[in-house]
Amino acid sequence: MYWPLGTPRIYATSSSRQPGPAHTVSHDGLPLRPQQPEQRPDGASLLSPKPPGASSAPLTPLTPITPLTPGIKPVERDYTDDEDEDEDDGVGAPPGRGPTDLPLNEPILALKVARAGHIFAVITATTLTVWQTKPTVVLAVVVRSKASLDAYGTNTNLLLRPDSAILVLHTSLGFLITYTLATDPDARIYRPHFPNHTNVQRRRQSHAGEPGQAAPDQILWGPGEGSGVRDVSIRFRMVIKVDAGIESVLALDDELVVATRKPAAVQCIRWTPDSSGSQTSTELLSRMGWLEKRVTVKEMTHDRPMNLSTWVTSDGRAYAVQRLPRAQGGDGSNEPAGAKRLFKGYCFHAPQSEQDRAVRCVVNARFSLIAVGCADGTIRVYSAKDYSGNIPPSHVHVLPASLSTTGQLTALVYSPDGYCLFAGFEKGWATWSVYGKLLSNTFHADHAVAATHGEEWVSGVRDAAWVGGSGDLLMTARAHEAVWLLEMARSAVTGCYSPANLFRTVLQSTSSIMVYRGYDLPDLTSISAEPALWHTTRIPPGYLWNQWPIRCTAISADGRYVAVAGRRGLAHYSVNSGRWKTFTNDVLENEFQVRGGMCWYQNILVAAVEANRSFELRLYSRESALDGTVAYTQPMPAPVVLITVTGEDSLLAYTYDNLLYHYVFTPGPPGGSIRLIEVGHIAFHGIVRSPARVRGLSWILPDHQLLEGDPTQDVAHASVLFLVDGKLVLLRPSFAEGNLKYDMRVIAHNVEYYLNMRDRPYTHEAGPPRLIPGPDGSGSSGALDDSLWIFDGVELKAWSDMDTVMKTISGEEASRELPALVPVPIDFYPLSVVLPKAIVLGVEPDLIQRRDISFSFFRFSIRTHLFLPDILRFHLAANRSAEALQLAQQYEHLEYFPHGLEILLHHVLDEEVDANPPPTPEHAMLPRVLSLLSSFKQYLDIVVQCTRKTEVRSWRTLFAYLPPPQELFEESLQRGSLKTAGGYLLVLHTFDELATASEQGVRLLSRAMQEEDWDLCKELARFLAALDESGETLRQAMELAKARLGGDEGPLGRNGFAATSSRLEIPGASTFPSLVRGLGVIQGSDSGVSEGRSATASDAGSFRSDM
After folding, report:
1. Measuring CA to CA, which residue among 869, 985, 891, 942 is closest to residue 1097?
2. How confident is the model at residue 1004 (pLDDT cuts 50, 70, 90)?
3. How far is CA 302 from CA 111, 180, 252, 256, 295, in A?
4. Torsion-angle region of residue 335: left (phi > 0), alpha (psi -120 to 50) or beta?
5. DSSP three-state, residue 636
């Protein structure tokens, strides 16, 4: 659901040797005067035993004077060309300020982002740089002095406390250097000042808000940059020496976790002492019974939402670890370290070979997954079901290239919403959807072009992190001093799971939305890959200044309106008029926050909001200004998890107190607006354990209740679908002793999204809810209107009739086994199922590299797949020919319907030809397919088109179940399909029926000349010439054709025929290959590609597409 967009922006502290921003030189607690090596301070060694006679108090280096924030002037000032720059030579520099320039061309070694995402920090071997995310500017640079580098070693890794208050440097000599980061919430820097601004400029600036209240510098800001640049200060805190050797370090909210080498142990160092005065606690790995013997911890990660850590040990195993409560751990200061129990864990990944050894681990809290990157580059994902070690394998992310092409795994990180996994490698990077569908990669890029243009982000990644609510991706290269910021486009479903977002494809990026508009276009136009099918609009800059990032996007069922919501407030847009509506009053905009999603009912926007610590459903009319009164407000007793529109006039709202509310839209009093009326609710206590984990919801009403039932009783008859993490759960109502109960069944796993076709919005294009009534009058047999589609990260699957599934769960069917799913294999990520057009719609990114431009960029193209052949084949394989015929008749009106049947025939024929042993006639699929095809008028064309695109060895198998080619040739002539008859003429020739082929060739030539189809005449002439190199056969055919047509005095009479025959010269033997191409035989060609010719009846199914 994520795709890279455009080309990344590049940021670096400096790209030249010219004077750059001021920076701080830190001695990290060392005296300014050089000392002898034997007098060098040891720092505070908290892990090694103290020498005899040493003081009990830890040795803490001196804290220097707080350095000024480099490159930042906390006051507004004007810069002029004649300003004195005395600080460049270090004269008069404040304490801590160094006279040297900022080191250049040092590659970035590590990248860390704060939990809030507002800042990030990077290190090189000698520097520490703190950046602000929006706007992306340097806030502070710390350059370690030569004395510090000699004493403590160069930087190797960076730790950032989640609240960004403390930074920790891990050095090559085993030291941990800590810094504090202080921020002034009111101070702003880098503020432009215009001393001679005019009234025109002031009027332009007033468009950002109310007249006279706009900040005069907002004309320079972009998305999320309205708050300006913060003023920060870095202060050295202390140095920690670890004599035991550092294997890995993890910074948490309360403590710093250090894994040591000798002895192998894990030590927890609190940022501040606890009530007992203790600041450290240690547990040896040898005392942890759940770990293997003689191992060390190579990597540690922690996920706060799940309160779960992962450890990767030196033997390649991966563990899920939890910190024990301090009371249980017994961390008294006078207790031996070996008696303390600080952690408990479970091994969930044990390598079976060297290639399976774990290298990286990352936790996906949204879907309860743990991804393990292995030595061979494969990413194995496990499902964390509980905290007792029940972590079974879930799926595997397969690399799109070999290990020699990708290199070793270097970075592994999930997007904040959990829908996308990014993996960086030594020679490129790749992204997958949460359950394993490959989205994008750079392994097939031209590295020579990338190296020429200096685009190291294409050729390899050292570290990466998500920022901007999953809207941007930060990357660092393996040997480069820059940070790249790559914009990502993602589906609106990731932020707002609603039927309209699933049935109408909408993509959102950092500053724009893209709406696919091919649903209402003709069939062949809607499946094209033209960029014009996308309607792209930029979100108003005035809204993005302060409310970036966009967290929620919702489109209306008819595709006319789109709404977006950021940190606070909302805005909506009309696709037809191209106009946005936003709040002009900042107070009203910042008064509420959208929590629980949005959806559209006709031209009414429904938003679940939190305002002043209360929770509401608000209705906004598209026709009214947002600053006006809200159309209707429905108070809610608890926060809303999600809302969705169902049926013609119903709204479902699911809340955190595990209640599902059913509302009905009703007109208000005369002259008033629409309002909501609650007609029922359902409590799911004891059924849904965690409402926060519910991602999607819908319900299915029986037909009798939908048509004739009381809406107040809908909650008692509805079957409810919940999407919890990756599990699709169906609740079937039943009454026992007068009480309402639910039969619960998990019907699918690893579900990224599902599509309930009963939720399909009613539009003129979609038609009525029931297209074709079934034999039992239910209207659900074979028409797919009651189908349920799921995507599991591998392929799209569907139940063609949900009634059978629900009866199975409730025990009405003899078998308790769920019906089989229809597989629809696809090679791109599906975004929507367009039922009226029988296609699956998706997008696919492409990395464009050209030598005439100096940068590479991503663009995505529309992909479509015709699902009709897959479902027809499934019905035929199950001996449900009647359902297959009914389904095919439903789509007979499509222009590409013959092409769909041709694909079905082609795939079945290839499988039966390659089958060993071949299937018996009773079990063969080919006769069933041909029987289905014979029900349609395009039958003869489809068969001959299939012969054009298959090898000659397959023809015998195909015509074993067909009438003789002679009969098919005659029938084609009777129908007037001359090109189709020409195809069967080739079959006659291939089957060594030379006499028949010559005779029928003459008949066809005469008919073609009579109908003035000169292209066919030319190809037939070549065909007859190829039968006899002497040309005698062609001469005889011309004479016979002359005899047939000689009596006519029309355009093909004596004079007309002479003029025509003069052009039909006898070709040489070398023209035989063109004969084969001309009459349509393509040896071994793909079934999805055909030549471009003039449109005829026989060519109705031959078009080029991505299906």
Report:
1. 942
2. confident
3. 16, 21, 8, 12, 20
4. beta
5. strand
